[in-house]
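User: Could you write out the 3D structure of this protein bound to 2'-deoxycytidine-5'-monophosphate? I've included everything you need below.
Assistant: Certainly. Input first, then the structure.
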Amino acid sequence: MTVVAIDGPAGVGKSSVARAVARELGFTYLDSGSMYRSVALAAAERGLSPAEVAPLIRVQPGDRVLLDGRDVTTAIRDPAVSEGASRAAADPAVRAAMAAEQRRLLAHGDWVAEGRDIGTVVAPDADLKVFLTADPEERARRRARELGVDPTTVLAEQAIRDERDRSREHSPLRPADGAVVIDTTDVTLPDVVRRVVELLRDRR
Ligand code: DC
């Protein structure tokens, strides 16, 4: 049973890195952000608060994200849902529900789990904790390329969400104790992946 925790801010390349590391190691990939996004989507659809809706729904993260059995993989990438997820993630009741569910998943098997608080809260005893960073401009460029939109708009929205993620009272975004911080600004994706895989091999 092995857990690799990969945390960091939006647009830093966590998903690409975590997915590739999981593939390389034959581990299962957990995108914890997809769970916050699903809560935000369900809350908006039902006109309830994220805390009210969280206990009522069942989210299955995976290659396809299922919300009560419905495929919401594309719907949760909508910018309005991103904004809602950032707000939902500031609610301690929502965080507690998500963290409990994530711990339940991580208890069996080998995982690469990606998010904001995997190393600090969800899996502080992970075999390897990585915190990815990159310059804000570079992160906005990466996100903009992914979404096919203007980097300037992404940069402005990203700054607001970064600040909210960092300054929230509960589980603010920060490197976990013992986390290896990797600045990915000028590093290619395959090089970051190689480094993470090497770090894990060194520890086993
Ligand atoms: O990584 P993402 O953009 O899909 O995450 C969506 C939102 O959820 C983002 O505002 C950060 C928040 N989040 C969190 O607070 N904790 C996590 N473990 C994962 C995501």
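The pocket of 2'-deoxycytidine-5'-monophosphate is lined by residues 10, 32-33, 36-37, 85-86, 89, 115-118, 161, 165 (CB under 6 Å).
User: Perfect, thank you.
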